[in-house]
Amino acid sequence: MKRRTFLKLSAAAGAAAASAGCARTYELLPGMNPRGWDPHAETEQTSFCTLCPARCGLRVRVVDGHARAVAGLAEHPINRGGLCRLGASALQLRLHPHRLVSPYHLTDHKGVIEKTTWNAARTALVKALSESQGRALVVVSSLAGSTRIDLWRRLLGEIGGEVVLWAGDDMEASWAEVARWTMGVDSPPAADWDRSDLVVTVGLDALATGPSPVWAQHVLGSNHGAQRWLHVGPRLNATAARADLWLACRPGTEAWVLLAMAYVLLKRQAHDAVFLARHTRGFEDLAGQILEQLDPRRASRITGVPEDRLLEAGVMLSTSRRPVCVPGEEALWTANGHVAGWAALVLNALSGSIATPGGLVIRPPLPLNDLPGKSAAAQPLGLWLRRVASGDAVEPAVLILDLANPLFTFSDGSAVGRFFAKASQRFTFSLFADESAVRCHWQLPAAMHLEEWGDCAQPPGVPFDAYLLKAPAVQPRGEARAVGEVIVEAAADLGVELPAASYTEILGHRAAGLAGLNRGAMLGDLERLEQVAAMEERGWWFGNSEGFGIKKLAEGGGWADLNTGTPNWSQCVGTRDALVDLLPEALGNAHLAPPEEPPRLVATPHLEVARDPDLALTVPWTLRTAGLVEGQSWHCWAGINPVTARELGVTDGDLVRVRVPGGAGEELRVHAAVLPGLMPGVVSLPLGFGHRPGPSFFGGDDMRPVAHLIPLQLHGKLPTRIVGGVPVDLEVDRG
Amino acid sequence: MDRARYGMVIDLERCTGCGACETACAQENNIPPSTPEEAAQGRTKSWMKILVQSEGEMPDVEVSYLPRPCMQCDNPPCTRVCPVHATYLSAETGIVGQLYGRCIGCRYCANACPYGVKYFNWQRPQWPQPMEEMLNPDVAVRYKGVIEKCTFCHHRLQLARDQAAFEGRDQVRESDYQPACSEVCPTRAITFGDLDNPLHEVHRAAQDPRAFRLMEDLGTQPKVIYLRKGK
Amino acid sequence: MRIRPRLLVAAVLMVAVILSFWGLRRSHAVTQPIAFPHAVHVKEVGLECDACHPGVKSSFHAQLPGLSVCMECHEDKLSDNPEEQKVRELARLSPPPQFRKLFLFPNHVFYSHRRHVTVAKIPCETCHGTIAESSAPPGHPLVHISMQFCLDCHRQRGVTVDCIACHR
User: Fold this and answer.
1) Containing H/E element for A715?
2) How much of chain A exceeds pLDDT 70, in percent?
């Protein structure tokens, strides 16, 4: 063949191929049947989020039975249409490839897991509980919802056993404990930030991980110009970044920053003498101690905050009409956590900001209808462990976890591991095969928040009364079930009497107790609940797709002003004489014994929005945008200040080893992140990394800062997570 | 429908850097998740991205957050260099459109954009099963070899116009068309609307004395206006 | 006669190209589970479009009927046509087979049926051709819908030809 022929043939063949290839088929939406069709029936369901205690309102766009979008609910009093990064990615949680969608049974011989059925699980659960002879323990997450928790309490109250209320490692334990010491109340007070003119956050990243971050953001946004924010803590977190004043102090010394501010307040006679005389005990002694021993100069040495900043903060406090001070985990999870919590309370008391608008508020429980009969009390895990240690409680034979992962998150993993191993029957209701779940004999798939009925009374982050009730927006994925239904079935099998036969009816029964209040709001497709349908006539607002609107609220004589007004003092304080005890016995002299010599390097913990420590969330988008101050990172990091980094010979990105000198606990190998917004001499460790729920889509070969690093220490009354203020060693890993 | 010039005003005093806008945008617009390998190559797609800047040393460190969508320039450098009219400035809406069907993947526009808001699909976008169930049916799923960028969620404008026409209205109201980012922002830092319509909030906000645009001296005339931090 | 090799090759190539196009077109033809005759149902029975396509006037998608819609009438035997018997058999399956979409836009196109029918009041034949008179489902749309087709009409009526009005 001649060359010309060859060329002509090639050209012709090429032209033919090109023209055939021109029939381009475009790809359709993945997952769609290419020649099928969908009716595109679209509805909008309302719901609320349970990924943090805030309980923001949601709108879920459901198309042909699939949830396609989650957005904020504009009329919801907590989030007003906004959402946080975590809440906005709810669908990723629902559709996570490693979500548990079938029940599994771990047969003890050789650790073989096999798929099982809900019937088999129910039989096993009922058998185990009926034979437990009072040695059953339920660890239920506070995010599970009020009625679900109460149903466990009722069940265990009747058959004998204990209930632990799991709040992600007792993060509020110190603050709750302080509230108990000083005010004689059981729950930590809420703060009425919206009406405060100075918000003092102590180790609390209110805008990112606080008890109600979206609500705090709303407060910040809408009070712009009329309100000042002051943050105390070692780390430039989201709240510190927006604060009018940031007092950067060494971890574990927050209490003395606050006491220095109190000093200025007292010196300037700006304290609320009337309030203190009428409602507190111990003011004279406390004032004497502060003025004699805790002046700003000394505080500056202890805390590392320049003296002029402390004075500026004190003046800010003195010139505020209604300041409020709220502590958070970065201050509470330290060796001096209780002192920090107490100092926060003292600031509120000195300013007269307790049980007033703009101050701390105790909300009395809502008059929901009871579950009649014996119910077990709910307690924090730390308290239960202490009771076991003192012989007051027994280790369980039957262990049930409900959305809790204490093996991973609790600071003393080994203490948890011990009682875990001793329980011969272990059940878990969870979303993932997480660290605690894989060690349970029965791993049962729980429905997530968009897939089940649920309720919540008095979400902790907001100062107003709220009761939320939601209906499912979509079907549970796979074989997941609403845990409330399972509890009701087990109760029926065990002969425990409940006010109604099904979980939804029980929810309706409880909510109906609120009808007489003539105010409130509900969410979800609720007409199905007969008991609550009648409430619409009594002024309740139904935030469902048909009937919501502020107009309806007003028409029904409903509740438009969501602030509680002036709380009733006698409901707020349960101590003797209804006086706030400013120098409780349990505190001892801890406040007069500050740490004077800072170690060379100390650790400080923090939560990250994108990583819930318990839920094993490797949520793709939130993960990708995580750590705004620290920069993008998929892997755990140890943050250090540039000056400290230079001293240690560390550059950004180096692999480093972090360890507690001379202590138990393993070594942490992580990447160093050089962060200008960190005190020198402080190592900042984010919590929530290192989950391994199966082969994770995005790696996850990380270390867990807490469990690997810090041994538990019993301090004062309660074992608390001690991460802040613990001395550490850090060096570059050259191995 | 009337002409409009859609723009955005972002108040940096209100932005807390929470990142809800980034996540909501990614959910709304079917943006595929990235992997650590892609991030290492700088290939993460963030139509809306929060830029973080920290200044100073302890104890005087300041951090600022800047949410950065596509600037939707009135004089866009990207449209000038596109050889196939796959990106163009829509006279009717002011939005710089991106047409996946026309894009040949030459990446001239990505090069030309001074803000770096043009993202190229180096790989076929993938979601792990069964996450495809959460894809938004109103937004195209892009494929390998095309450029994509923030569209001011103009699919929502299409739906809003359709709804308006169906109801016999000839105007799209301000609240009918809001992109995902402005809708989700918990502090209301992002305001969106027709810059030329005096009834829309952006019109007034754009004239705030704190207003500035990014890299104004380049002459791109961005329609995303920032309000400086500081009261 | 001696056939030149070049001519032979060219002829073979041409035939190959034609065959491949024809084959492609055949493989893209849409087949339906039932040979549904529009003519009978529209002309004789007098059904309106939205009897079976509920979204015609009110939704973006005109939508297709499931076999349960057919069964509303064909539960009873209405004729001797074996296709009708097939309806009853197929409707019993779980899940029952579906009618397939004839018009298929790429997912980066936004099209609203209600806008064109209810608002613009375009007659059905403009885009659907003589489907009402067909006695069997066609394999391809009777009117070839291309972007040019849409643009021509848009220009004629003076409505938007902005790309992002329809592309997303």
Assistant:
1) strand A713-715
2) 76
What's the pLDDT tens digit per position in C124-165? 999 999 999 999 999 888 999 999 999 999 999 999 999 999
Joined together, the tokens standing for residue B17 give 């850097």
Report the distance separating Cα A439 and Cα A423, nearest Å: 11
B1 within domain boundaries: no
Is B92 a member of any domain? yes
Contacting subunits of B (3+ beta carbon pairs below 8 A): A, C
CA nearest to B103, candidates A19, A30, A26, C110: A26
Nearest CB partner across the interface for B187, out of A96, A220, A225: A220
Q: How far is B75 from chain A (nearest CA, A)?
A: 30
Distance between CA atoms of A348 and A276, rounded to whole angstroms? Answer: 11
Q: Are A85 and B19 a contacting pair at CB < 8 A? A: yes
Q: What one-letter code names the amino acid at B2? A: D
CA–CA distances in Å: residue B95 to residues A81, A333, B195:
26, 49, 12
Measure A32 CA to nearest chain C CA, in Å: 11
Chain C residues touching B88 at Cβ < 8 A: 163
Q: What is the largest CA-CA distance in chain A?
A: 113
For residue C146, what are the β-bridge partners? none
Query: Is A225 in Cβ contact with B186 (below 8 Å)?
Result: no
Cβ–Cβ of C162/B92 closer than 8 Å?
Answer: yes
pLDDT tens per residue across span C8-54: 888 888 988 888 777 767 667 888 888 999 999 998 889 988 888 88
Q: Are A53 and A461 in contact (CB under 8 A)?
A: yes
Closest approach of chain A CAs to the CA of B18, in angstroms?
A: 7
Query: Which positions in chain A touch B58 (Cβ < 8 Å)?
Result: 248, 641, 643, 676-680
Among A647-651, A654-658, A697-701, name the one with the lowest average pLDDT. Answer: A697-701
Side-chain-facing half-sphere of B45: CA atoms under 13 Å: 25
DSSP track, A418-432? HHHHH-SEEEEEESB
| Residues spanned by the domain of B223 | 6-227
d(CA A86, CA A431): 16
Q: How buried is A367 (Cβ within 10 angstroms: 0-12 exposed, 13-18 middle, 19+ buried)?
A: exposed
Structure tokens at B133: 């169930």
Confidence of residue A26 (pLDDT cuts 50, 70, 90): very low
Q: Which chains touch C (3 or more CB pairs under 8 A)?
A: A, B
Tell me the count of B-C CB pairs closer than 8 A. Answer: 55
Set of chain A residues whose Cβ sits within 8 Å of the Cβ of B27: 69-70, 88-89, 91, 621
Q: Rounded distance, CA A726 to CA A600, Å?
A: 11
Domain containing B112 — which CATH number?
3.30.70.20
- Total domains in the fold of chain B: 1
Minimal CA separation from B14 to chain A, in Å: 6
User: DSSP letter string over C44-74?
Assistant: IS---HHHH-TTTTTSSS-----HHHHHHHH
Size of interface A-C (CB pairs under 8 A): 53
Task: Tell me the pTM.
Answer: 0.88
A positions 625-644 inside 8 Å of B (CB) = 625, 628-629, 631-632, 634-635, 641-643
Would you say residue B156 lies in a domain?
yes
Going C83 to C85 to C91 to C97, the CA torsion angle's sign is negative
**DSSP conformation letters of A162-230:** EEEEESTTTTTHHHHHHHHHHH--SSPPEE-GGG-SEEEEES--TTTTSSSHHHHHHHHHHTTTT-EEE
What ipTM was assigned to the predicted interfaces of this complex? 0.92
A642 and B61 Cβ atoms separated by less than 8 Å: no
Quote the CA–CA distance of A294 and A483 in Å, as a whole number.
Answer: 52
A391 class by beta-carbon count within 10 Å (0-12 exposed, 13-18 middle, 19+ buried): exposed
